[in-house]
Amino acid sequence: MISTDQPVIRSAYQQSIADYWNREKDPVNLRLGEVDGLYHHHYGIGEYDPAVLETPENVRDEAIIAEMHRLETAQAEVLLDHLGAVGPGDRLLDAGCGRGGSSIMANHRFGCQVDGVSISEQQVAFANEQASKRGVAGQVRYHLRNMLDTGFETGAFKGIWNNESTMYVDLHQLFAEHARQLAPGGRYVTITGCYNDVTGGRSRAVSQIDQHYICNIHARGDYFKALSANGFVPINVVDLTAATIPYWELRAQSSVATGIEDSFLTAYREGSFHYLLIAADRI
Predict the structure, then answer these.
(1) pLDDT tens across 89-130, in order?
(2) Long-range contacts of 11-17 (CB under 8 A, 24+ apart)
(3) What are phi and psi of 63, to 5 degrees?
(4) 8 A C-beta contact, residue 140 and residue 131
(5) pTM reported for the whole predicted model
(6) Shortest CA distance to 163 belongs to which of 193, 123, 184?
(7) Percent of the chain residues topping a pLDDT of 70
(8) What DSSP line would sit under 84-131, residue for residue?
(9) Alpha helices in 148-215 (DSSP H)
């Protein structure tokens, strides 16, 4: 493994991102992860079971939390579905890994080595602890590295994904690094929120999401321009917008709501914001 001689944090903005996630102990991430020990940092897809809202009051919140976790895990399963044929001898990269839940799922499904990277020391330490608890630390490893310059070997990975982490970086820099790291014919997958080019810039609701997460949401078209410029050819593009709205409706009724739910629901319903899965092959 080649280590980078560059500092992990490259700018004041990246430092603010690292500080945010190092401090973050949001129940919307932690309580959902406590359901089965898979800690995610992304949203969910699919219809929720309305029966959870009718359970007795003393167990209703617990039922809602479990249902939200089911939806976020379903989202990760859909992402992994699009990585294509992956075998035990392959290697995958989770770029912007959060607390590592998707990496553990990928290892369980494919039996292969998975590396995750984050600029948050807290996230990396937490994720490695979870891998140890599950007995997969030898195959699932998390690293304090910058996904724009990881230091990993050229052509080392069969697949790479970003799950709701692309809005923190420049897309051309990100996809150039991914293209370097992927073997020819390797697959890249992202699930991301992006603003609608047709509506002309960020809506008020999208700007509120940016401010809440100190991110910089990209236009939908920017993804395809940056992918093409770096030798990627899309093979699947799936609009998950309608599929994610139920998650946000349920989250708005939960004890772990953060106050940003209305902005997401407004942006999705008015059409200014899209939730996309993009799978592309490196040529």
Answers:
(1) 999 999 999 999 999 999 999 999 999 999 999 999 999 999
(2) 14/119, 14/146, 16/214, 17/119, 17/120, 17/168, 17/214
(3) -65, -40
(4) yes
(5) 0.96
(6) 193
(7) 98
(8) -S--TT-EEEEES-TTSHHHHHHHHHH--EEEEEES-HHHHHHHHHHH
(9) 171-181, 204-213
* Amino acid at position 222, single letter: D
Quote the tokens at residue 163: 């799950």
* CA 58, chain centre distance (Å): 32
Instruction: Give per-residue pLDDT as tens, 31-79.
Output: 999 999 999 999 999 999 999 999 999 999 999 999 999 999 999 999 9
Percent of the chain with pLDDT over 90: 95
Place of tokens 């390797």: 186
Give the whole-angstrom CA distance, residue 149 versus residue 151: 6
Q: Nearest Cα to 70, choosing from 52, 84, 97? A: 52
Which residues have CB under 8 Å from 18's CB, separation 6+?
8, 9, 119, 120, 121
User: Which residues neighbour 15 within 8 Å (Cβ) at sequence distance 6 or greater?
Assistant: 9
